[in-house]
C-alpha cells in the first residue's frame, strides 16, 4: 500500500542526484515495424504485494496480453525497501504504481516522471475508528490519538481533511503509524488511517466494529493509484508505452467484468491470500475505478481533477509552486484506445 512508504525530502534530494547520473534506457530491442515496441523487456513495480489493487497488471500478464503486445513484462512487488518512485526514476524499473500526489510533488522536486493512466479516480484513504468511540467526524479527532504515516498521501489527505473542517492539528495527539493494526485493535490509537479497499476487512475479521471517515465526504477530492514512467522513457519509447498501457487497460476491463476470475489469477500467483479478503478488496477497488471520469472510461485522466488536486496541494503548502497537469500527463495511449472504440471520455 502506498501509505506504507515515506517520501522524505532527503529521498527526493538523493533521487535528483542519482537521476541526473542515470543512463537513458537503451532501445537496443527496437525492430523495424513502426508500431512495434522500441523496448520489449520491461518491468512493472507495484506499490505492495500482488493483490486486487493491481489486478489489471496481473490479469494482463496471466492472459498473455503483454505478450500479444510484443512485450516481456516482469511484475515486481513493492514494499518498504522497494518503493516505485525511486526505482522508476533511476531507471531500475520501467513502470510503476504510485499516488497522483506523489507525481505532482516529484515534478516540483525536479524528478521527471509522468502519469500514463489514472486508475483510482478517488483516493482509497480513509480514517478508521471504533464504532463505540464517539468519533463521528474530523471535529471529534480533537484530543484523540490519531496514527499518522508521515511524508506520503495519507498525511496529505489528513492535512487537507483538517483544513477543510477547521480542525487545528495542534489539538490532536498524533502518534506514528505501524504496519500492524494491533495498536488500533488494542485501542492504543483512536483513529487509524487505512486503505478502504483493504484494512477494514482485516479489522472486522479480528472482531472490531468499525466506521470509516472519508475525506471526500468533506469536499477533499484526491485521486489514488496511477501508472507512471519517466518522461524520458515515454518520449523515447512511445510504442512501448502504448503497448503496455493498452494491454494493462485490457486487463483492468477484464478484472472489472469478472472479478472472480481475476481473484483466481491472483490466488494462483499468491495462494496464501484469503479469497474473502480479495473479494472485499475487489468490490471496493472497482468503486474507485468507476468514480468520476472512470464511470465512462476506466484509466482516463480528468485534467480538471488533476488541476484541482494540484491547487489543493499548493493551498496546503505541500506544493510550493503551481504544477500544470499538462506537464505530468501523457495520456495518448488511454485516450486513443477509447477513441478507437467510439467512446467519448470527456463530456
Measured on Cα atoms, how large is the radius of gyration? 20 Å
Would you count the extended β strands for me? 10
Low-confidence stretches: 1-32
Query: Roughly what percent helix?
Result: 25-40%
Distance between the ends: 32 Å
Largest sheet: 5 strands, mixed
Compute the average pLDDT.
Answer: 90
Number of helices: 14
SSE order, as H and E?
Answer: HEHHEHEHEEEHEHEHEEHHHHHH
How are the strands ordered across the major sheet?
2-1-3-10-4
What is the approximate shape?
globular
What is the beta-strand fraction? 5-15%
Indicate the structural class: alpha/beta
Chain-wise SSE layout:
Elements: H1 9-21, E1 41-45, H2 55-62, H3 65-68, E2 72-76, H4 84-89, E3 95-99, H5 100-108, E4 113-118, E5 125-130, E6 145-148, H6 153-165, E7 173-176, H7 182-185, E8 191-195, H8 199-205, E9 210-213, E10 225-230, H9 231-236, H10 238-257, H11 259-269, H12 275-289, H13 303-315, H14 332-340
Parallel strand pairs: 1-2, 1-3, 6-7
Antiparallel strand pairs: 3-10, 4-10, 5-8, 5-9
Helix pairs in contact: 2-10, 2-11, 10-11, 10-14, 11-12
Structure description:
The protein has 347 residues and is of the alpha/beta class. Helix content is 40%, strand content 14%. It has helices at 9-21, 55-62, 65-68, 84-89, 100-108, 153-165, 182-185, 199-205, 231-236, 238-257, 259-269, 275-289, 303-315, 332-340; strands spanning 41-45, 72-76, 95-99, 113-118, 125-130, 145-148, 173-176, 191-195, 210-213, 225-230. It has a five-stranded mixed beta sheet. A three-stranded antiparallel beta sheet has the order 8-5-9. It starts with 8 loop residues before the first helix and ends in a 7-residue tail after the last helix. Residues 1-32 have low confidence and may be disordered.
Amino acid at each position: 500500500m502506498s501509505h506504507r512508504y515515506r517520501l522524505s525530502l532527503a529521498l527526493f534530494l538523493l533521487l535528483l542526484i542519482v537521476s541526473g547520473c542515470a543512463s537513458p534506457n537503451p532501445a537496443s530491442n527496437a525492430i523495424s515495424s513502426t508500431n512495434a515496441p522500441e523496448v520489449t523487456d520491461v518491468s512493472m513495480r507495484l506499490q505492495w504485494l500482488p493483490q486486487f489493487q493491481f489486478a489489471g497488471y496481473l490479469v494482463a500478464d496471466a492472459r498473455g496480453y503483454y505478450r500479444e503486445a510484443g512485450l516481456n513484462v516482469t511484475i515486481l512487488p513493492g514494499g518498504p525497501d522497494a518503493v516505485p518512485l525511486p526505482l522508476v526514476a533511476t531507471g531500475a524499473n520501467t513502470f510503476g504504481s504510485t499516488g497522483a500526489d506523489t507525481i505532482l510533488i516529484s515534478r516540483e522536486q525536479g524528478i521527471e516522471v509522468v502519469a500514463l493512466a489514472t486508475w483510482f479516480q478517488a483516493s482509497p484513504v480513509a480514517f478508521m475508528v471504533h464504532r463505540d468511540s464517539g468519533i463521528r467526524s474530523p471535529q471529534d479527532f480533537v484530543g484523540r490519538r490519531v496514527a499518522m504515516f508521515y511524508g506520503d498521501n495519507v498525511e496529505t489527505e489528513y492535512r487537507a481533511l483538517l483544513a477543510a473542517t477547521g480542525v487545528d492539528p495542534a489539538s490532536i495527539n498524533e502518534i506514528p503509524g505501524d504496519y500492524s493494526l494491533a495498536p488500533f485493535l488494542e485501542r492504543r490509537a483512536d483513529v487509524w488511517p487505512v486503505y478502504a479497499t483493504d484494512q477494514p476487512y482485516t479489522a472486522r475479521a479480528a472482531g472490531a466494529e468499525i466506521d470509516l471517515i472519508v475525506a471526500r465526504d468533506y469536499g477533499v477530492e484526491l485521486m489514488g493509484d496511477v501508472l507512471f514512467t519517466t518522461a524520458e522513457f515515454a518520449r523515447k519509447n512511445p510504442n512501448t508505452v502504448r503497448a503496455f498501457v493498452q494491454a494493462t487497460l485490457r486487463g483492468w476491463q477484464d478484472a472489472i467484468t469478472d472479478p472472480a476470475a481475476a481473484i483466481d489469477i491472483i490466488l494462483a500467483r499468491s495462494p496464501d491470500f484469503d479469497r474473502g479478503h480479495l473479494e472485499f478488496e475487489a468490490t471496493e477497488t472497482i468503486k474507485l475505478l468507476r468514480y468520476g471520469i472512470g464511470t465512462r472510461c476506466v484509466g482516463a485522466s480528468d485534467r480538471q481533477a488533476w488541476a484541482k488536486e494540484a491547487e489543493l496541494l499548493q493551498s496546503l503548502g505541500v506544493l510550493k509552486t503551481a504544477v500544470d497537469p499538462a506537464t505530468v500527463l501523457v495520456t495518448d495511449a488511454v485516450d486513443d484506445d477509447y477513441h478507437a472504440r467510439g467512446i467519448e471520455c470527456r463530456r
